[in-house]
Amino acid sequence: MEATGSDGQQDFLPEGLLRAPKVLVVDDDPNVCKLLEYHLKRAGCDVSIANSGEAALESLNDGHPIDVVLLDFRLPGITGLETLRRINHRNKPASVIVMTAHGTTEEAVACLKEGAYDYVRKTNGLDNLRMAMRNALETVGLKEEVEQLRAKLVEKDRHFPDIVSRSPAMTQVKKLVRMVSSRDITILLEGESGSGKELIARAIHTHGDYRDKPFVAINCAAIPEALLESELFGHERGAFTGAISRRIGKFEEAQGGTLLLDEVGELNPSLQAKLLRVLQTKEIQPVGGQTRKVNVRIISATNRDLGDSVRKGLFRHDLYYRLAVFPILLPSLRERKEDILELAQFFLRRFAGHEESPVTGLTREVEQALLDYDWPGNVRELENIIYRAVVLSESELLQLRDFPVLAISAATTPPPAPPTLSAASPSPPEVPVRARVVSLEQLEAQAIRQALESTAGNVSLAAELLHISRATLYRKSKKFQIPLR
Ligand SMILES: Nc1ncnc2c1ncn2[C@@H]1O[C@H](COP(=O)(O)OP(=O)(O)OP(=O)(O)O)[C@@H](O)[C@H]1O
Ligand SMILES: [Mg+2]
Fold this sequence. Notes:
About 45% of the residues lie in helices and about 15% in strands. The protein is of the alpha/beta class. Adenosine-5'-triphosphate binds next to helix 7 and helix 15.
């Protein structure tokens, strides 16, 4: 193959391709390989060589992703055409440009039929090949862009459900979220369990300038103490028994983005001291390694009263002040009853959609019971009981019997009060709807069993349905002795 045409080596790399394209050259002639390797490398490609179809397939099966294959038509062993066929049967086929010495029209047609991206004659010099490469790489770039966009959409859908609220208290929280979302400021989210701390942390991340950077969350309570330091800061190879390779910690994973330290109140004194040092120096020290600079915005979350832990000497006061530069207190659900029905409708629509159930709403009686309930488990509890009710219900409107936790002894339940027609008419005396308290844990265990049942034991799907992490699902299943596959 002759090196004809312009020597503008970059000219076949399309704009917008942000990484070096990976090209596999397959030819039994070492001179052709060398020549192509030289030109492709100069143009910025990452090149590998195979001298036969077998070697090419082996190298593709190695798991190294290849963008474009330059494939000689006449090869010893399995033919170029057969190699092409096998490449295209792979899960993620590369774009294949077939090169041939002389080439007949039949050959060209056969190649294109087998899914070749293009077909070039070696005798035409490098120019044709450049053009074919450029087109192929443009397609690669476009495919990647589409994949990234799709991944972002899925990610958004999965992780950033809307913050549903209508209460003034949550309007204030959302205002704070907007205020801090683009700032490198250390934020402490305080609120009862299930009140939405993680949701708010993610909202802070996605609503501001950090949205394209990583968001990494670590639950300090869910990880055994002995592993937590290496989870946070990483470790070097051989730092301790079992550390067979170097590992990057959550701080480095979140580099440039946001790190959520969930349940930060659970950190032991030694890790509290280490975290304080990170906040002071902006450096981490992997276990068994050298210190490294990190640039991470930290959001911590706690469902304890951290101030109280400080007073009791359980949490360092200097660390507390560093973490609580910007505290945001999430009100419990019982403090914002205006949100209850809004959230109930939101979860109902979501689960009814997932489960293809006939449910479209709630009876007035249920609405009243939801408003009267105390919600010790906050929004998560509401989410779980709506899920359970939607799964169990066979009617369009959820009935009180679908909510054991709210179940009311029939004898004490008056029919729902009719709506008052005018402001002047006296409102009927309010009869309190009393909830029969069923243990929250029982309910939780039941929800987990149902989720596992409806996903045929698939832990990831079940965790997704329950809107908890897999780790939490494992922890809770163990606690409630629910066997997992
Ligand atoms: N305002 C809201 N709108 C919609 N969903 C919400 C809202 N608040 C909470 N949720 C949902 O409720 C569940 C619990 O929220 P989240 O995990 O953020 O709470 P948490 O305070 O971090 O709880 P824990 O202290 O137990 O970790 C999640 O599934 C979350 O998506
Ligand atoms: Mg949480």
